[in-house]
Amino acid sequence: MRRLWLLFTQTVTVCLGILFIVATLRPDWLHSSPQAPSPAPLAPSSPGTPGRAEVSYARAVALATPSVVNVYTSKHINVPMVPLPNDPELNRLFRDIPGFSRRKESTNLGSGVIVRGDGYILTNYHVIEAADAIEVALSDGRQAPAELVGADPESDLAVLKIGLPDLSAITFNGEHQVRIGDVVLAIGNPFGVGQTTTMGIVSALGRNRLGINIYENFIQTDAAINPGNSGGALIDTTGRLVGINTAIYSETGGSLGIGFAIPAQAAHTILDQIIKTGTVTRGWLGIEPQDITPDLARAFGLKQEDGVIIASVLKNGPAWRAGIRVGDIVLQLNGQAVYDSIGFLNQIAPLSPREEVTLLIMRDGKKRDVTVQVGTRPRIRKP
């Protein structure tokens, strides 16, 4: 038995040695069978092609493009005949002098999205701000004057209406949650060159503290957005609207791959209010909240930095009447945690006027509940 085992091990050793030599000196002997042709590169598939992954977004663009319009505005401005220093008081003094300035027409361009088949269009407020006339051009070549239905400068949204038939309204994304990494397409009229589509991904959600609007909750995308794209559509790969393109971060005026869009759900809420009432109503407590910094947390003996401190209270406002004072720390609103001042304002905004809410505050190291009747946020008029 021992001799058989030795014979087996010697045979295996010799075979492995031969295989090693062949693999080192003549590897082609081990691949003598005809090579199969390499697979052809995957070509972009047309919709409905079986067995291939869809790499084209042509269907989504075809669905959304008829709903995206070009918005042209014009307004008349007084231009001084003689250059003046950049001094508002000096300009105000001279602008009413007869013959000192001449009237000049200024034009602006942007984009918009048809959101209802009866002619309602969403765009940015800064696109149509102070316009004397608004013209809309559709992707099929038709043009029409537009009426301003209402605007909300605090969110930088406006609603227009045109009277053309057979309009193609875009589909909102509904309850579908936008995620970081989702592919998105931006459609608009950058630099006035005509309708253009760019592609990117959702880079971030909930962007705020940008100093663009009072209420900020932006979708950030790296899809190329340039001047003229404002008010255009940000869509997903099925052609549904996920946002209204609003702003870019740029030091040169061109796209640097950081663009911001107002989420479609927030835009839809504002759209409904403007169509129904011509304005947007937001909840208001008459307070100015401030973030709790580590220094403030130590000063007030707090173990956490969540919540906001009341920096000022409007006399006779809703919070004042409820007994809230400067220095109070708000920890919760209706049982929901308050983390920072921006988030707190966004929690207050959807509340209905005359609705009663409960604030959990801390004063002198003790927690207490305070009931506040929500007021209506005063409209801010721009000069």
UniProtKB/TrEMBL annotation:
Gene3D superfamilies: 2.30.42.10, 2.40.10.120
Ranges in coiled-coil conformation: none
Entries under SUPFAM superfamilies matching the protein: PDZ domain-like, Trypsin-like serine proteases
Keyword Cell cycle: no
GO BP term, example: proteolysis
Keyword terms: Hydrolase, Protease, Serine protease
Pfam families assigned to the protein according to its UniProt record, in alphabetical order: PDZ_2, Trypsin_2
Domain PDZ as annotated: residue spans: 274-338
Transmembrane annotation, as ranges: none
Superkingdom: Bacteria
Keyword Coiled coil in annotation: no
Gene Ontology molecular functions: serine-type endopeptidase activity
Annotated family: Belongs to the peptidase S1C family.
Protein name: Serine protease DegQ
Species assigned in the record: Pollutimonas bauzanensis
Lineage of source species: Bacteria, Pseudomonadati, Pseudomonadota, Betaproteobacteria, Burkholderiales
